[in-house]
Write a structure and sequence with these properties.
The chain is α+β, with helices and mostly antiparallel strands. The chain has 23 helices and 9 strands. The strands form 2 sheets. Strands 3-2-4-1-5 form a 5-stranded antiparallel sheet, with no helix packed on it. Helix 3 crosses helix 17 and helix 9 packs across helix 20. The longest helix has 26 residues.
Length: about 575
Amino acid sequence: MSAYLVLASIGALLALLIQGRVPPAVLFTGWAVGYVLFGVTEQQALLTSFSNPALITLLVLMLVSLALERSPLLDRVSDTLLKGRESMASLRLMGLTAFLSAFLNNTAVVGSLLGVISRQRYIPASRLLIPLSYASILGGVTTLVGTSTNLVVNSFVINAGLPPLGMFQFTMVGLPVALICILGLLFSARLLPQNRVQDQETPQSYFLEAQIMAESPLIGNSIEDNQLRSLNGLFLLEILRHDRLLSPVSPDEVLQQGDVLVFTGEVEKVQALQRFPGLQLFGNGVDRLLSSNLVEVVIANESELAKRTLREVDFRTLFNAGVVGIRRGRRRLTGQLGQIPLRVGDSLLLAVGPDFTDQRNIDSNFHVLSGTLQRPKLHKNQSLLAFCGFGVVIALAASGLVPLLNGLLVLLAALLVTRILTLSELRRRFPFELWLIIGSALTVAKALESSGGAQLVADAVRSVCNGYGVYGAFIGVFVITLILTEVVTNNAAAALVFPIGLSTASAFGADPMPFIMAVAFGASACFIIPFGYQTHLMVYSPGRYRMVDYLKTGLPVSLLYSAGVISLVPLMFPF
């Protein structure tokens, strides 16, 4: 396959990634296998990619993080963090988040703090959650283990036969950039909406659906006769009848069998619907669960629910819970709840059964925001062992005494022996999709390089930057990575641009390190569009955000971040 055909196939891959209908894991795996079948790269290269030491390090690090994210530490410090003036509370929160994200997986950090911030009553969550997500990115870029992106780039570096990146090689650029951007966030965060604490459950937070069953005495009577207009806290918004939407609903409208009634209002008043015989809330048996806890959850990035409907997964059987309502940011979801493809970051209101907490798939699918359900926390001694062990591993790796992978494997074994982690938990939470994406992306990058496609793009970059020199080419690689990160995902952007950056450095006869850093920092520069980074999606619905909220807050941060990286990388890593 010629270099031009490989570039054309990469263009098709990029288009499909932007479209978002096919999961990235499926796309990258398909492309990697296709390149092997067409002889663009060898089978051995595919197998080697999946056993890349940096990739294995990332997987083990994420498994170790399962123990660290269950520590009660964050819950205990939340009161101290969020008291006082909003600006100081926000600064303390971002500082802690950035520090933790420098060493822990930033998804785990945001997931641990998400419920704490949503439940607190000092400051509106909408003023804190986007800064929380951004701070986790800014802290992550300061060390090798702070974000999966840096470890992914390190896997490409090792695959290219270059020396692996050091633990604090990113710090010289990442730390000053993080500090500048956090200070900038204090000002841009003032543009975020002020959803007051007491108004967090607004009248249109959720839209509830109830279907009229065949035996219901409501059939044949009007809305007014059935007293469906005088519900305490709930309002009948529309009726779905045989794929036809009736809105607004007239008080004289006569109800028919199979009608789906759509209510809006105060979700805690949903029990009011129980007094109507034959009116069943969506989900088998969900009406029997309403006497139990109402729990609000956010769909996690590794959830099996993403891109699937409630009916497809048989939600009631899978979780022993019924879905009472769904919310996506501040946008109303129309149509039948059971037929809406779910997304990472969607908020679900669940009516849960008594054994909901015993379900083993809760942690891997949801971040819990409210309700009495609490994830099992580590005991004090367990928490101390986990954090101290992790600190020792990082210190030994930073000093060069013990390789990071070796230390993490020993720590993982210790966590299993002490039963802080279990094998069943590792099986449930193993980041299989991430392993597929990165392993396949390494093969795609190898094909792009070996076919000559990367060199063609590098030559094009060189011709465009003619007159601007190697510095102009460096900026070009950074900007390309940044744009791809915003429209696809961080790991996909790193995979597609890394071989181009390496070939561009070779074309200019420059040291590859500045271009490697351009890809690493550019792949983490997702501040404007929420769909390119998983922590942004995690806070999207809990914060009741709109796209414009990310744009207003993130654009100044993105400009500061870019200016800092473009200025500091050439100083710390000369061409």
